[in-house]
């Protein structure tokens, strides 16, 4: 897939998901994308052209994870996790991970103490970057 989850944005990175620091900025980021889709400007504004809605929605989700973690880190551990391409009915069983394998990361994060790591991204069970 094109782009990165943290660096997804319009106009060559002018507004990226990685720069979102508040809920308001996230709303502006997503609103900009939606407006560009309506105006058929996705390619012209340098948004990802393949799977654009999927990529931008994941970037926004990752940005919102960081916003929530910053806002509530004293009370809860808030992280994002990608379970991997999982074999399910949704993808006609083309995924490479079983549901049991894919569940390991989310379950591990759910079992962390509330005052544990927060604002991070995990690829399955491994600490990763939002990039």
TrEMBL record:
Give an example GO molecular function. oxidoreductase activity
Region Disordered: start and end of each range?
A: 1-22
- Bias class Gly residues marks the residues at 1-12
Among the entry's GO cellular component annotations, what is one? membrane
Check the record and name the InterPro entries matching this protein: NAD(P)-bd_dom_sf, SDR_fam
Pfam families according to UniProt: adh_short_C2 (PF13561)
Keywords from UniProt, A to Z, are: NADP, Oxidoreductase
- Do the record's keywords include NADP? yes
Instruction: Give the family, as the similarity comment puts it.
Output: Belongs to the short-chain dehydrogenases/reductases (SDR) family.
* Protein name per UniProt: Uncharacterized protein
Originating organism: Malus baccata
């Amino acid at each position: 897939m094109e782009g990165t989850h943290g660096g997804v944005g319009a106009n060559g990175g002018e507004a990226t998901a990685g720069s979102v620091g508040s809920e308001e900025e996230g709303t502006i980021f997503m609103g900009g994308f939606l407006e560009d889709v309506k105006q058929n400007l996705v390619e012209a504004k340098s948004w990802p052209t393949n799977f654009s809605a999927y990529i931008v929605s994941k970037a926004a989700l990752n940005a919102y994870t960081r916003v929530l973690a910053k806002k509530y880190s004293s009370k809860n551990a808030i992280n994002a996790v990608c379970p991997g391409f999982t074999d399910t009915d949704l993808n006609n069983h083309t995924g490479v991970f079983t549901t049991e394998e894919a569940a390991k990361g989310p379950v591990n994060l759910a079992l962390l103490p509330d005052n544990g790591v927060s604002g991070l991204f995990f690829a399955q069970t491994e600490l990763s970057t939002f990039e």
